[in-house]
Structure formats: structure tokens, C-alpha cells
Amino acid sequence: MSEVPRVPLLIGGKLVQSKTTQWRDVINPATQEVVAQVPFATREELDLAVANAQEAFQTWRNAGQGQRMRVMLKFQQLLRENTTKLAEMITREHGKTLPDAEGEVGRGLEVVEHACSMVSLQLGEYAENAASGIDVYTLIQPLGVCAGITAFNFPVMLPCFMFPIAVACGNTFVLKPSEQDPTASLYLAELALEAGLPPGVLNVVHGGPDIANGLCEHPDIKAVSFIGSTRVGTEIYERASKAGKRCQSMMGAKNHCVILPDADPEVALNQLVGAAFGAAGQRCMATSVAVLVGEARNWLPDFVERAKKLKVNAGTDRQADLGPLVSPNARKRVESLIQQGVDEGAKLLLDGRGVKVEGYADGNFVGPTIFDGVTQSMTIYQEEVFGPVLCVVGVDTLEDAVAFINRNPNGNGVALFTQDGGAARYFQNNIDVGQIGINIPIPVPVAWFSFTGSRASKLGDLGPNGKQAVQFWTQTKTVTARWSAHGRSVNTTITMR
């Protein structure tokens, strides 16, 4: 039996083996094979990573914008060239299908391409003679050492939501990937260094809550970005904010898809199948509630038949529609919630428990699952299941659908399928959700627009990507200056916000 590889840390531009005594197995979800061991880094190793980032910031902050842009241009090239390798890493440790994993790399690549535009994004303002003889201008400057803490479900895309924009703005960075599938995140960082990031600008430390808490509380870290569960995200936000840091926490969701009876049923149902069951439901933007309005309820049997045809298999099978859940505990939790749905009176139209996949008897497989007659008081509606489970609700009107969705505390994403422009306009103006899809089931915007989840799905007023990300990773200084005619400084006032 070959020795299981141990995942290194990335500190000061070098891969180093942790001195910790605490290691966690990284498991292939389709086979239960141990494919790697990841360290729970020591506090000394975390401090060393931050110290390297702090030292690197002194020079990286003064690197020309053109230099930083060229690094990002090279980085996006390397991402393209290594898409297949990254996707294989994702599938081996996360379980999602290879096409889905390749799509994830593509979404991360989109953010890196956006970071290549930093020379035009990080611009200040200038007003000559704002008052008599007085000029006013702004400086958009990096914060310092920043940190990111990511969930397991997108080990490439989520880090790309964080460090590319941050380092392109002139910050340095410490990344803590999920300990469940760390290899792709680490390799992503290695590619960034190969693209030209100087040693110490990007560091990677692995671990659990102790490392996450250490990042939130470290005095030299200025900002923390988190993407993951509501419980963890709330604690991260509270710890980081209490320590005086800027923080954004993108958290849990309960995303709805409203289908009006005037929608094209072929388009709406096919899109809903992919949104509900793709990635085995393990994404914060998955559609987990279908709200069928009026006669659209008659389409439910057709939808169930489409879901029955989905293929469940290991992610390496390119014909598979769903791979396994990430861990045995994840499978047990999803199956337990399915049973709670039955016990609380929801009608189980399609049961994904007990799926058998030939050659993968130990895989964490759950097939597409559909409940009808779901109410807002049921656990399967209140909880984020994070599995291939769809709740179906019937209402009479679009107004009823909007009121139903607005009563849910989460506000990550919502979709509407219709051919009525007036209905779409009413929906987008009255729904209280941050990201809206019109005839698009998963409304994650392109990377040059910000990720704008709201309400219980988000803490902090600035989200990842787009202009908001540049604002989050920088500080604005306003300079008010007056100079005498012969060049001697008479009065200069600098204010910060």
C-alpha cells in the first residue's frame, strides 16, 4: 500500500510540512479511500504565515498597478492550462462530476479575468480648485494583510472570490481552505505564485476552528472574508468585528424558483432539474424550493419523471448528473432530514435514499428527492438541506408567491420563469432577495458584478466580486491640499474613512 500524501502549508512562497501532531484524512466521497492527510496547523505556523504576509506587504503595496495586472494575466493563463488537473482534484476530494468541476474552475477564472482590470478599477477622484486654491482628491489604497476562510463545496471558485481581487489591490493574503478538500485550493495558490506573486503575498494554512478563530483575532490581519454555513459565518463575523476588522460573511440560503403558468414548461422544468439537483444540491445557490403558481402545478408529475431519469454515479463518470455527497455525515444528515419531512406530513414523491451505484458500494450517494405539500413550519423548509432535495409549494398567484418567499429569513437567490415582462418587473421590484434570476434558475452574476445576497444570507454590507470587492479590500483616503504659487506647502489635511 502506497503512503498517503500529506498536504503541505504554503508560507513565504514555499511549501512546508506542518509540525502539527493533528492530521485529518481527506476522503474520496465515492470510494471512502483516503487520498491525502491535511494538517491542523499550529498557532506558531499561523503566526509565521501572517508575519510573512506582513513583511511582503511593505513592498507589494508599492508594486505598480501594471505589475500586479500582469501577474493576474499570467495567472488566468495558467488556470486555463490547468483546468483539467484542477477539476480532477476537485472531483477526487469533493465528489462533484468532472463537467461540474470544470465549470467551477471556469467561474473562478472569470473572477481572475476581472482582477486583470484592476488598473481601471482602483481609481480615485480628483477635483482641482474644489475651493479657491484648494485641490481635493482620493487615494484608493490596500488595507494590509487580509484573510479568507472557505467552505468545501467550491474549493477553487470560493478562493477565487477572495484573493485575486485582494492581491490585485495591493494586499497580501492568508487563505484557509476547507479541510475536507484542500488540495485544489493549495494548487490554485501555487499557480498564483508561478504567475509571479512574490513570496509571502499569498499564504495557505490548513486547519479547523482554531485556525479560523486565529485569523479573526490576529492583530495584523485587517479584513476577513468568509463563505460557508450560517452558524460558522455568524461566529466569524462576530469575532472579526469584535477584533476591529472589516468582515464579510456569505452564509446559508433557501433559494426559491417561481414558475408561472405562462412559462415555457420545457425550459422551466429542465432548468429546475439542474438547479435543484446539480452538484448533488451542495451549493449555496441551489434551488431548494419550487413555488408553482396556479396551473403550473399540473406540471409536477412531468417534473418528477425528469428527475427520475437523472444518473447518479461517481464524479469521474462524465455521463453522471449527480455525484456523491462530500462525506458519510453529510449523507446521514440529508437522509435524516428526508425522514423528518415524511414524519411532518410532506408528501414524498421521489425518494433518493438507498441509491446503489455499481462499483461504489461505499459511496455517499443520495438521489434526487422531491417533496410536495411542504409548509413553512416543516423542518425540510426551514433548514438548508444541502443535498438533492426539492420542496414543492403551490400558490394561487404571483403576489402569493412573493409574499411566501419574503417571509423566509434568507435572501441569497430567487428565480422566476415567465413570458410576461410585467410580471417579471413586479417580481424584481417586490421580492426581498439580493440576487434575482428571470428565466435563469441560479442567478449568480458574472464576476464584474458583485455577489449581492441579503438578509440572513449575508453579514457585512459589501459582497465578493465586482465593485463591492474592490471597496471591501481597500481603504479610501481623502486629501485636501493647498499649495502656494512658488511650491511651498501651506496647508494639507488628510482624512480617512
From TrEMBL:
GO terms for biological process: L-valine catabolic process; thymine catabolic process. Pfam families: Aldedh. Its EC number is 1.2.1.27. The keyword Acetylation does not apply. Residues 18-479 form the Aldehyde dehydrogenase domain. It comes from the Bacteria. GO terms for molecular function: methylmalonate-semialdehyde dehydrogenase (acylating, NAD) activity. Keywords: NAD, Oxidoreductase. It is an enzyme of class 1 (oxidoreductase). PANTHER family: MALONATE-SEMIALDEHYDE DEHYDROGENASE, METHYLMALONATE-SEMIALDEHYDE DEHYDROGENASE [ACYLATING], MITOCHONDRIAL. NCBIfam families: MMSDH. Belongs to the aldehyde dehydrogenase family. This is methylmalonate-semialdehyde dehydrogenase (CoA acylating). It comes from Bordetella trematum.
